[in-house]
Design brief:
Number of strands: 19
CATH topology of the largest domain: Porin
Order of helices and strands: HEEEEEEEEEEEEEHEEEHEHEHE
Shape: rod-shaped
Radius of gyration: 59 Å
Low-confidence stretches: 1-22, 194-208
Strand order of the largest sheet: 1-4-5-8-9-11-12-15
CATH class of the largest domain: Mainly Beta
Number of domains: 2
Structural class: alpha+beta
Mean pLDDT: 81
Helix content: 10-25%
Distance between the termini: 99 Å
Oligomer: single chain
Protein backbone atom coordinates (compact mmCIF):
# COMPACT_ATOMS: atom_id res chain seq x y z
CA UNK A 1 0.00 0.00 0.00
CA UNK A 2 1.47 3.34 -1.08
CA UNK A 3 1.00 6.64 0.75
CA UNK A 4 -1.77 7.84 -1.58
CA UNK A 5 -3.78 4.64 -1.10
CA UNK A 6 -3.31 4.80 2.66
CA UNK A 7 -4.52 8.40 2.74
CA UNK A 8 -7.61 7.46 0.73
CA UNK A 9 -8.44 4.59 3.10
CA UNK A 10 -8.08 6.82 6.14
CA UNK A 11 -10.29 9.47 4.56
CA UNK A 12 -13.05 6.98 3.77
CA UNK A 13 -12.97 5.55 7.30
CA UNK A 14 -13.14 9.02 8.83
CA UNK A 15 -16.13 9.89 6.67
CA UNK A 16 -17.90 6.73 7.90
CA UNK A 17 -17.73 7.70 11.58
CA UNK A 18 -20.93 6.85 13.43
CA UNK A 19 -21.59 8.15 16.95
CA UNK A 20 -21.91 5.52 19.68
CA UNK A 21 -21.93 5.66 23.50
CA UNK A 22 -18.21 4.67 23.72
CA UNK A 23 -15.52 7.25 24.18
CA UNK A 24 -11.83 7.80 24.85
CA UNK A 25 -11.87 10.50 27.48
CA UNK A 26 -9.40 12.60 29.42
CA UNK A 27 -7.18 10.49 31.65
CA UNK A 28 -7.69 7.21 29.73
CA UNK A 29 -4.77 4.99 28.72
CA UNK A 30 -4.80 3.28 25.29
CA UNK A 31 -2.53 0.25 24.81
CA UNK A 32 -2.00 -1.22 21.32
CA UNK A 33 -0.09 -4.26 20.06
CA UNK A 34 0.30 -5.49 16.50
CA UNK A 35 2.63 -5.65 13.52
CA UNK A 36 4.10 -2.92 11.32
CA UNK A 37 5.54 -2.99 7.82
CA UNK A 38 8.46 -0.54 7.41
CA UNK A 39 8.73 0.47 3.75
CA UNK A 40 11.80 2.68 3.03
CA UNK A 41 11.78 4.96 0.07
CA UNK A 42 13.03 3.28 -3.10
CA UNK A 43 16.55 4.74 -3.33
CA UNK A 44 18.47 5.49 -0.13
CA UNK A 45 21.90 6.43 -1.50
CA UNK A 46 22.72 7.11 -5.15
CA UNK A 47 25.84 7.69 -7.20
CA UNK A 48 24.71 8.47 -10.77
CA UNK A 49 28.00 7.16 -12.20
CA UNK A 50 27.91 3.76 -10.47
CA UNK A 51 24.55 2.79 -8.94
CA UNK A 52 22.48 3.01 -5.78
CA UNK A 53 21.88 1.44 -2.35
CA UNK A 54 18.41 0.65 -1.06
CA UNK A 55 16.87 -0.81 2.14
CA UNK A 56 14.44 -3.71 1.71
CA UNK A 57 11.03 -3.82 3.43
CA UNK A 58 10.76 -5.39 6.90
CA UNK A 59 7.96 -6.40 9.26
CA UNK A 60 8.25 -6.33 13.04
CA UNK A 61 6.01 -6.56 16.17
CA UNK A 62 4.98 -3.14 17.42
CA UNK A 63 3.46 -1.76 20.63
CA UNK A 64 2.32 1.72 21.60
CA UNK A 65 0.83 3.44 24.62
CA UNK A 66 -1.20 6.66 24.49
CA UNK A 67 -2.47 8.87 27.29
CA UNK A 68 -5.52 11.11 26.73
CA UNK A 69 -4.52 14.59 27.92
CA UNK A 70 -8.01 15.84 27.05
CA UNK A 71 -11.03 14.26 25.33
CA UNK A 72 -9.35 15.02 21.96
CA UNK A 73 -5.59 15.36 22.61
CA UNK A 74 -3.30 12.41 23.40
CA UNK A 75 0.41 11.78 23.61
CA UNK A 76 1.69 8.44 22.26
CA UNK A 77 4.95 6.48 22.39
CA UNK A 78 5.48 3.83 19.68
CA UNK A 79 8.05 1.07 20.13
CA UNK A 80 8.93 -1.81 17.80
CA UNK A 81 11.13 -4.86 17.88
CA UNK A 82 14.13 -3.91 15.71
CA UNK A 83 13.40 -4.14 11.99
CA UNK A 84 15.92 -6.37 10.15
CA UNK A 85 16.70 -4.92 6.71
CA UNK A 86 18.80 -6.21 3.86
CA UNK A 87 20.72 -3.49 2.03
CA UNK A 88 21.02 -4.10 -1.74
CA UNK A 89 23.45 -2.60 -4.23
CA UNK A 90 21.88 -1.92 -7.61
CA UNK A 91 24.61 -1.01 -10.13
CA UNK A 92 23.85 1.00 -13.25
CA UNK A 93 24.85 -2.06 -15.23
CA UNK A 94 24.72 -5.55 -13.84
CA UNK A 95 22.64 -7.59 -11.39
CA UNK A 96 21.44 -6.53 -7.95
CA UNK A 97 23.59 -7.93 -5.17
CA UNK A 98 23.32 -7.91 -1.40
CA UNK A 99 25.47 -5.15 0.04
CA UNK A 100 24.84 -5.87 3.73
CA UNK A 101 22.19 -5.86 6.44
CA UNK A 102 21.27 -3.81 9.50
CA UNK A 103 18.78 -3.65 12.39
CA UNK A 104 16.71 -0.47 12.71
CA UNK A 105 14.93 0.56 15.95
CA UNK A 106 12.68 3.65 15.49
CA UNK A 107 10.92 4.74 18.76
CA UNK A 108 8.57 7.65 18.02
CA UNK A 109 6.84 10.13 20.34
CA UNK A 110 3.76 11.85 18.91
CA UNK A 111 1.07 14.29 19.89
CA UNK A 112 -2.32 13.15 18.53
CA UNK A 113 -5.68 14.73 17.81
CA UNK A 114 -8.71 12.40 18.07
CA UNK A 115 -11.60 13.63 15.92
CA UNK A 116 -14.49 11.56 17.27
CA UNK A 117 -13.84 10.44 20.88
CA UNK A 118 -17.53 9.72 21.46
CA UNK A 119 -17.89 7.48 18.41
CA UNK A 120 -17.50 3.82 17.60
CA UNK A 121 -15.10 4.77 14.81
CA UNK A 122 -12.41 7.17 16.04
CA UNK A 123 -9.96 8.62 13.48
CA UNK A 124 -6.90 10.54 14.60
CA UNK A 125 -3.81 12.30 13.26
CA UNK A 126 -0.49 12.93 14.93
CA UNK A 127 2.89 14.60 14.61
CA UNK A 128 6.05 14.15 16.61
CA UNK A 129 9.70 13.27 16.73
CA UNK A 130 11.62 10.08 16.00
CA UNK A 131 15.02 8.84 17.14
CA UNK A 132 16.20 5.89 15.04
CA UNK A 133 19.02 3.67 16.25
CA UNK A 134 21.01 1.31 14.02
CA UNK A 135 22.70 -1.85 15.22
CA UNK A 136 24.11 -5.10 13.87
CA UNK A 137 25.48 -3.47 10.73
CA UNK A 138 26.98 -6.14 8.49
CA UNK A 139 28.80 -5.77 5.19
CA UNK A 140 29.04 -8.61 2.64
CA UNK A 141 32.62 -9.77 1.78
CA UNK A 142 32.13 -8.99 -1.93
CA UNK A 143 35.29 -10.94 -2.98
CA UNK A 144 37.68 -8.47 -1.41
CA UNK A 145 40.70 -9.41 0.62
CA UNK A 146 40.32 -6.15 2.57
CA UNK A 147 37.75 -6.84 5.34
CA UNK A 148 35.42 -3.91 5.89
CA UNK A 149 32.87 -2.76 8.47
CA UNK A 150 29.69 -0.68 7.83
CA UNK A 151 28.68 2.09 10.27
CA UNK A 152 25.36 4.02 10.28
CA UNK A 153 24.84 7.00 12.61
CA UNK A 154 21.71 7.24 14.72
CA UNK A 155 19.12 9.70 13.37
CA UNK A 156 16.76 12.36 14.73
CA UNK A 157 13.79 13.31 12.54
CA UNK A 158 10.20 14.46 12.32
CA UNK A 159 7.28 12.03 12.18
CA UNK A 160 3.68 12.24 11.00
CA UNK A 161 0.80 9.83 11.53
CA UNK A 162 -2.83 9.12 10.60
CA UNK A 163 -4.90 6.28 12.00
CA UNK A 164 -8.23 4.99 13.12
CA UNK A 165 -9.55 3.00 16.10
CA UNK A 166 -12.74 0.93 15.84
CA UNK A 167 -14.44 0.02 19.10
CA UNK A 168 -15.33 -3.64 19.74
CA UNK A 169 -16.53 -3.26 23.35
CA UNK A 170 -16.23 -0.85 26.24
CA UNK A 171 -12.49 -1.66 26.55
CA UNK A 172 -11.34 -3.47 23.38
CA UNK A 173 -10.74 -1.96 19.94
CA UNK A 174 -8.86 -2.66 16.71
CA UNK A 175 -7.19 -0.21 14.41
CA UNK A 176 -4.72 0.70 11.72
CA UNK A 177 -2.32 3.55 11.16
CA UNK A 178 0.19 4.85 8.67
CA UNK A 179 3.30 6.85 9.58
CA UNK A 180 6.00 8.70 7.75
CA UNK A 181 9.36 9.13 9.47
CA UNK A 182 12.30 11.29 8.39
CA UNK A 183 15.36 9.02 8.81
CA UNK A 184 18.68 10.29 7.43
CA UNK A 185 21.91 8.58 8.49
CA UNK A 186 25.58 9.17 7.73
CA UNK A 187 27.04 5.89 6.41
CA UNK A 188 30.75 4.92 6.51
CA UNK A 189 32.79 1.87 5.59
CA UNK A 190 35.89 1.21 7.64
CA UNK A 191 38.58 -1.10 6.33
CA UNK A 192 41.08 -3.09 8.32
CA UNK A 193 43.69 -1.96 5.76
CA UNK A 194 44.39 1.62 4.80
CA UNK A 195 42.45 1.34 1.53
CA UNK A 196 40.63 -1.29 -0.46
CA UNK A 197 42.47 -3.53 -2.89
CA UNK A 198 41.97 -2.90 -6.57
CA UNK A 199 40.32 -5.24 -8.93
CA UNK A 200 36.88 -6.30 -9.97
CA UNK A 201 33.37 -4.85 -9.54
CA UNK A 202 32.85 -6.94 -6.45
CA UNK A 203 35.96 -5.44 -4.91
CA UNK A 204 34.85 -1.96 -5.61
CA UNK A 205 31.12 -2.12 -4.98
CA UNK A 206 31.37 -0.39 -1.63
CA UNK A 207 33.92 2.14 -2.76
CA UNK A 208 31.93 2.79 -5.89
CA UNK A 209 29.53 4.90 -3.84
CA UNK A 210 32.42 6.78 -2.30
CA UNK A 211 31.98 5.32 1.18
CA UNK A 212 35.29 5.56 2.98
CA UNK A 213 36.66 5.59 6.50
CA UNK A 214 37.01 9.35 6.59
CA UNK A 215 33.89 10.89 5.07
CA UNK A 216 30.48 9.17 5.03
CA UNK A 217 27.56 9.69 2.68
CA UNK A 218 24.02 10.60 3.78
CA UNK A 219 21.59 7.71 3.44
CA UNK A 220 17.98 8.95 3.16
CA UNK A 221 15.70 6.12 4.31
CA UNK A 222 12.49 8.13 5.04
CA UNK A 223 10.16 5.13 5.35
CA UNK A 224 6.37 4.73 5.45
CA UNK A 225 5.14 2.47 8.26
CA UNK A 226 1.82 0.59 7.94
CA UNK A 227 0.47 -0.92 11.13
CA UNK A 228 -2.41 -3.18 12.18
CA UNK A 229 -3.14 -3.71 15.87
CA UNK A 230 -5.55 -4.64 18.60
CA UNK A 231 -5.96 -2.27 21.56
CA UNK A 232 -7.21 -2.08 25.12
CA UNK A 233 -8.44 1.03 26.89
CA UNK A 234 -8.03 1.58 30.65
CA UNK A 235 -10.42 4.36 31.67
CA UNK A 236 -9.37 7.02 34.14
CA UNK A 237 -10.64 6.76 37.70
CA UNK A 238 -13.48 9.22 37.91
CA UNK A 239 -15.46 10.37 40.96
CA UNK A 240 -18.85 8.78 41.35
CA UNK A 241 -21.62 10.84 39.89
CA UNK A 242 -23.43 12.90 42.47
CA UNK A 243 -27.08 12.05 42.56
CA UNK A 244 -29.20 15.04 41.73
CA UNK A 245 -32.01 15.36 44.16
CA UNK A 246 -35.37 15.24 42.50
CA UNK A 247 -37.33 18.44 42.89
CA UNK A 248 -39.70 18.36 45.78
CA UNK A 249 -43.21 17.59 44.66
CA UNK A 250 -45.51 20.52 44.56
CA UNK A 251 -47.93 20.10 47.42
CA UNK A 252 -51.27 21.74 46.96
CA UNK A 253 -52.30 23.96 49.86
CA UNK A 254 -54.76 22.27 52.21
CA UNK A 255 -58.38 23.06 51.53
CA UNK A 256 -59.94 25.64 53.81
CA UNK A 257 -61.61 24.03 56.81
CA UNK A 258 -65.26 23.34 56.41
CA UNK A 259 -67.38 26.04 57.99
CA UNK A 260 -68.57 24.75 61.34
CA UNK A 261 -71.79 25.39 63.19
CA UNK A 262 -71.51 28.41 65.54
CA UNK A 263 -74.85 29.06 67.14
CA UNK A 264 -73.83 32.14 69.17
CA UNK A 265 -71.58 33.61 66.45
CA UNK A 266 -68.66 34.05 68.82
CA UNK A 267 -66.12 32.47 66.36
CA UNK A 268 -65.86 29.14 68.24
CA UNK A 269 -67.49 26.05 66.78
CA UNK A 270 -70.35 24.68 68.82
CA UNK A 271 -68.48 21.36 69.24
CA UNK A 272 -65.67 23.20 71.08
CA UNK A 273 -67.72 25.93 72.76
CA UNK A 274 -67.69 25.57 76.56
CA UNK A 275 -70.00 28.56 76.96
CA UNK A 276 -72.72 28.35 74.30
CA UNK A 277 -75.23 31.17 74.09
CA UNK A 278 -72.71 33.97 74.68
CA UNK A 279 -74.44 37.32 74.02
CA UNK A 280 -73.47 39.04 70.78
CA UNK A 281 -70.48 41.37 70.97
CA UNK A 282 -68.90 39.75 74.04
CA UNK A 283 -65.20 38.93 73.70
CA UNK A 284 -64.53 35.21 74.27
CA UNK A 285 -61.54 32.95 74.84
CA UNK A 286 -60.41 29.93 72.77
CA UNK A 287 -63.21 27.77 74.19
CA UNK A 288 -65.95 30.35 73.66
CA UNK A 289 -66.27 31.66 77.23
CA UNK A 290 -66.56 35.39 77.92
CA UNK A 291 -63.45 37.19 79.08
CA UNK A 292 -65.75 39.21 81.43
CA UNK A 293 -68.64 37.78 83.46
CA UNK A 294 -71.34 40.03 84.90
CA UNK A 295 -73.09 38.29 87.75
CA UNK A 296 -76.82 38.79 88.33
CA UNK A 297 -76.55 38.73 92.09
CA UNK A 298 -79.22 40.41 94.22
CA UNK A 299 -78.17 42.17 97.40
CA UNK A 300 -80.48 43.86 99.82
CA UNK A 301 -79.82 47.50 100.58
CA UNK A 302 -76.83 47.88 102.87
CA UNK A 303 -76.20 44.10 102.80
CA UNK A 304 -73.40 41.75 101.58
CA UNK A 305 -75.32 38.55 102.25
CA UNK A 306 -75.91 36.26 99.29
CA UNK A 307 -79.58 35.58 98.72
CA UNK A 308 -80.90 32.08 97.86
CA UNK A 309 -82.06 33.23 94.46
CA UNK A 310 -78.39 34.06 93.60
CA UNK A 311 -77.22 30.46 94.04
CA UNK A 312 -78.02 29.39 90.45
CA UNK A 313 -75.88 32.22 89.12
CA UNK A 314 -73.01 31.28 91.43
CA UNK A 315 -73.27 27.63 90.40
CA UNK A 316 -72.91 28.76 86.80
CA UNK A 317 -69.59 30.31 87.78
CA UNK A 318 -68.49 27.13 89.58
CA UNK A 319 -69.19 25.12 86.41
CA UNK A 320 -67.39 27.69 84.25
CA UNK A 321 -64.24 27.57 86.41
CA UNK A 322 -64.34 23.77 86.24
CA UNK A 323 -64.81 23.71 82.44
CA UNK A 324 -62.01 26.22 81.87
CA UNK A 325 -59.24 25.08 84.24
CA UNK A 326 -56.76 27.67 83.01
CA UNK A 327 -59.07 30.63 83.84
CA UNK A 328 -58.24 33.02 86.67
CA UNK A 329 -60.54 35.84 87.78
CA UNK A 330 -60.85 39.11 89.66
CA UNK A 331 -64.12 39.49 91.56
CA UNK A 332 -65.22 43.15 91.82
CA UNK A 333 -67.88 44.40 94.23
CA UNK A 334 -69.87 47.64 93.59
CA UNK A 335 -72.50 49.73 95.44
CA UNK A 336 -74.95 52.50 94.70
CA UNK A 337 -74.28 56.06 95.81
CA UNK A 338 -76.41 56.06 98.94
CA UNK A 339 -74.22 56.55 102.01
CA UNK A 340 -70.71 57.71 102.65
CA UNK A 341 -67.91 56.81 100.25
CA UNK A 342 -65.86 55.02 102.90
CA UNK A 343 -68.80 52.95 104.00
CA UNK A 344 -69.69 52.01 100.44
CA UNK A 345 -66.06 50.99 99.81
CA UNK A 346 -66.18 48.60 102.76
CA UNK A 347 -69.60 47.30 101.69
CA UNK A 348 -68.29 46.55 98.16
CA UNK A 349 -65.33 44.68 99.65
CA UNK A 350 -67.65 42.46 101.66
CA UNK A 351 -69.87 41.72 98.66
CA UNK A 352 -66.86 40.66 96.57
CA UNK A 353 -65.51 38.57 99.46
CA UNK A 354 -68.88 36.81 99.84
CA UNK A 355 -68.65 35.58 96.21
CA UNK A 356 -64.97 34.65 96.65
CA UNK A 357 -65.81 32.54 99.71
CA UNK A 358 -68.70 30.77 98.00
CA UNK A 359 -66.61 29.76 94.95
CA UNK A 360 -63.81 28.58 97.19
CA UNK A 361 -66.24 26.51 99.22
CA UNK A 362 -67.44 24.83 96.00
CA UNK A 363 -63.94 23.63 95.05
CA UNK A 364 -62.54 26.49 92.98
CA UNK A 365 -58.86 26.92 93.85
CA UNK A 366 -58.55 30.22 95.82
CA UNK A 367 -55.23 30.81 94.03
CA UNK A 368 -57.24 31.36 90.83
CA UNK A 369 -59.37 34.08 92.44
CA UNK A 370 -58.88 37.59 93.80
CA UNK A 371 -61.55 39.93 95.24
CA UNK A 372 -61.63 43.71 95.38
CA UNK A 373 -64.20 46.39 96.20
CA UNK A 374 -64.80 49.40 93.97
CA UNK A 375 -67.35 51.22 96.17
CA UNK A 376 -69.62 53.60 94.31
CA UNK A 377 -66.88 54.80 91.95
CA UNK A 378 -67.98 52.97 88.76
CA UNK A 379 -71.79 53.21 88.36
CA UNK A 380 -73.40 51.74 85.25
CA UNK A 381 -76.88 53.23 85.79
CA UNK A 382 -78.55 56.36 87.20
CA UNK A 383 -78.39 56.40 91.02
CA UNK A 384 -81.40 58.80 91.16
CA UNK A 385 -83.83 55.96 90.48
CA UNK A 386 -84.52 52.78 92.42
CA UNK A 387 -83.96 50.72 89.27
CA UNK A 388 -80.63 52.42 88.59
CA UNK A 389 -79.40 51.93 92.14
CA UNK A 390 -80.31 48.20 91.90
CA UNK A 391 -78.19 47.91 88.72
CA UNK A 392 -75.24 49.51 90.50
CA UNK A 393 -75.39 47.07 93.44
CA UNK A 394 -73.56 44.42 91.48
CA UNK A 395 -70.63 41.98 91.44
CA UNK A 396 -68.43 41.40 88.33
CA UNK A 397 -66.09 38.54 87.59
CA UNK A 398 -63.32 39.71 85.25
CA UNK A 399 -61.00 37.15 83.62
CA UNK A 400 -57.34 37.84 84.37
CA UNK A 401 -55.85 35.01 82.27
CA UNK A 402 -54.91 35.46 78.59
CA UNK A 403 -57.92 33.47 77.36
CA UNK A 404 -55.64 30.99 75.53
Amino acid sequence: MGPKAAAMVMGLLAAACVSQPARAAQGDWLFRAGATLLDPKKTNLEDPARGELEFDDAVSPTISVAYMLTDHVATELMLAWPFEHDIDFRPNDGDVSKFGDVELFPPTLSLQWHFNPDGRVQPFVGAGVNYTMFSGEHLEPLNTSAPAHLELDHSWGAAAQAGINVKLSERWFVGADVRWIDIDSDARIKYTQAEPLAGGLACCASAALKLDSVRGQKMEIDPWLYGLYIGYRIPAARPAATAVAAPAPVVAPPPPPAKCSDGDNDGVCDADDKCPGTPAGIKVDSVGCPLEQRLKLLFDFDSAELKPESISELERLVKFMGDVPFATALIEGHTDSVGADAYNQSLSDRRAKAVFDYLSSRGVDPARLKSIGKGESEPIADNKTAEGRQENRRVLMIRTDSGR
